[in-house]
Amino acid sequence: MKMLLLGATGRTGKLVLEQALNGAHHVNCLVRQPEKVKIEHDALKIFQGDTQSKDDLAKAIEGCDAIISTLNISRTSDFPWARLRTPKDFLSKTMSQLIAVANEHNIQRVVVCSAWGVSETKFDLPAWFRWFINNSNIGVAYRDHERQEALLEASNLDWTVVRPVGLTNSKKLRKIIESQANLPKPKLLISRLNVAKYMVRALNCSNSVRKKIVIST
After folding, report:
1. What pLDDT digit, counting tens, does each position of 91-143 carry?
2. What is the DSSP letter of 41?
């Protein structure tokens, strides 16, 4: 399979790229700064551009069969009130362009990384974390994830929304718990590596099409 990967220079996206290439997939990456992609591989092609640009997306998606996005709203640090580095509507603006380009290129399959706590799952979170979503810049990402999810739901694409719980940098692969409607009740943590492995595998999983799945370990 040949995929377009958005977010390849992020902490989760880097691992998705590794998992995809290890799985014998071909990958096109659209990134602002190509020098941040540290992998060299015959099956990897890097395009420089802006994911909010329809023209840039169209060039990078040429010949692809599917899409994975690990994009997120970026802050200057992990401090909850840190200044934003991306626009507040970065995810939804990208998604609106991506859906149009995917339709023009007859691409149906897309797997998107969102977050536990988006939309109806907000009420499944611990109260202290809901407070941060409501009162800090953390909430900017959650609100835009909600907008991009709504765009996917209204589209005719075969989408899967992956909502990981709290992310860690552990390198241990563990059994993944899939939750919908808070059943089974998710655990609080999952590693980025497990998320990456799950997202690549989800591309070929018909049971996950048009579903929003919380994952934890």
Report:
1. 999 999 999 999 999 999 999 999 999 999 999 999 999 999 999 999 999 99
2. -
Helices 138-154, 90-104: crossing angle, 10 deg rounding: 20
- CA–CA separation, 147 vs 169, rounded Å? 27
Q: Are 53 and 32 in contact (CB under 8 A)?
A: no
Give pTM, 2 decimals.
Answer: 0.96
The 8-class DSSP code of residue 126 comes to -
Cα 4–Cα 137–Cα 112 angle in degrees, nearest 5:
20
- For residue 57, give the nearest of 21, 17, 109, 104 by alpha carbon: 104
Decide which of 3.40.50.720, 3.30.450.20, 3.10.25.10, 2.40.30.10 is the CATH code for 2-216: 3.40.50.720
